[in-house]
Amino acid sequence: MDLQGKVALVTGAAIGIGLEYVKVMLENGLKHAAVLDVNQTAGTAAVKKLNEKFRADAAIFIHCDVTNKEHLEAAFTQTLRVFGRIHVVVNNAGLLRGCAWELEISVNLTALVRSTLLALDLMGKDKGGEGGVVVNIASVAGLSSVAPIPVYSATKSAVIGFSQSLGAPFHEARTGVRVLTLCPGVTHTSLVTDSHLYVMDENWKQELKKFFTDFPSQTPECVATAMLHILKNAKSGSVWVIEGGKPVYEIELPNYESLKVGKKN
Fold it and tell me: Which of 152, 198, 249, 256 is catalytic?
């Protein structure tokens, strides 16, 4: 996708990786961005800086609790009202808080599903839209078993399966919307640095620290560059990994059909 003249909506975009996604898209031709976040102070400050750096109307901040259905729907409506259309949705909002596992599911999975379906309704060619791209942010934790954060890991695995299903040719042909998945590795953000504060059991903390130290770390800017690459180039339904600041790469996950073929052979 060529970002020239396009409009993007990014959740969880007031700080960290989400804000870097917005920056890298604006640096590469994006016309407007809607910055969604529950943190009003950080979001307002971020948009002020973005508009000073790029242009006065480059971005708007929308205070949004993604777990609130009305908030999320209103955010999409406001973006359309201000900018006229939406071409890119990046579902970045995420939570690693094992002591509040129900909230983890609401943020990481339920809200992401709702946002993706809203995007398809508004961007889909079958609904009168122009098509577009949805990038759903999962994690390497969704590709492996991570003992101290089982619910977080489960939500990210679910994001991958959901995104692959909606990224299938049947949906892309109908909607003109590509659905992609990006799985960042350990990244220097508050989600990682503060995660030990919210582990369900004290005995799990050391195991979580070991998980983080076993993986090479990277900066939010590296992840944003990876997101831009797949946004422009990746095929719908594909799953990509960015870890240790190395180039992003696509992975092929086993599926039921391939397993059946293997069993027959």
Answer: 152
| Per-residue b or e along 162-196, where b marks 16 or more CB atoms closer than 10 Å to that residue's CB | bbbebbeeebbeebbbbbbbbbbbbbbbebeeebb
Q: Residue 15 burial by CB count (10 A; 0-12/13-18/19+): exposed, middle or buried?
A: middle
**151-171 pLDDT tens trace:** 999 999 999 999 999 999 999
| Angle, helix 111-123 to helix 150-166, in steps of 10 degrees | 20
**Residues 6+ away with beta carbon under 8 Å from 145:** 153
CA distance 57 to 220: 24
Mean pLDDT computed over 26-55: 98
Q: Is 31 helix (H, G, I), strand (E, B) or coil?
A: coil
Active site residue 152: yes
CA distances from 242 to 95, 103, 137, 225 (A): 19, 26, 11, 10
Provide the H-helix boundaries in 196-255.
205-214, 220-233
Q: What is the pLDDT of residues 210-241, one digit of tens each?
A: 777 777 889 999 999 999 999 999 999 999 99
Contact of 115 with 62, CB cutoff 8 Å: no
